[in-house]
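User: I'm writing a short report section on ligand binding and want a predicted complex to refer to. Could you take this sequence and nickel (II) ion and write out the structure as tokens? A short remark afterwards would be nice.
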Amino acid sequence: MTKDLYDIIIVPDPVLKETAQPVAQIDDALRAQMDRMLATMYDAPGIGLAANQVGLLNRVLVMDVAQREGENSRKPVCMVNPEVIWTSEEPSVMEEGCLSIPGQYAQVQRPKSVRVKYLNYDGEMEEAEFEDLASHCVQHEIDHLNGVLFIDYLSSLKRNMLLRKLQKAQKESQIL
Ligand code: NI
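Assistant: Sure. The structure tokens for the complex follow:
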């Protein structure tokens, strides 16, 4: 049923610029939020989704890059209170997009690898290392929890061009 999905919030909604607050307790309500965020992400479809993007300001993100990396099965990852504890000096440049900035893409430079500490779906502390696409994805989603969007890394000229293109596309889709 569609009620199991969140509406994804689109720029320039101010909730996307807010800092999400740490989660104090992982309970059934929070697991229901993670399930619903995953369902929303897969439906979009996307490879990552942060709480801000569904109007919630707790530090929760979900991601799954497995199929984008050519694997056959889903590998959902849920993170609560994620923290980057190490980044590689080696950078990586990849094209990024965002479900909150639909249809717009740009090259973003980030550390090629990161190590992240977080609480998993069951509330256990985990540490994991991410590389390339997964590294971009987890950093992009943690940025969301800090009110940062990938377009914030672009020059204002490029950012405004991209936002105007989005506005134009939205207007056109309203006419149709
Ligand atoms: Ni995003």
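A remark for your report: The mean pLDDT is 96. Residues 169 and 175 are 10 Å apart (CA to CA).
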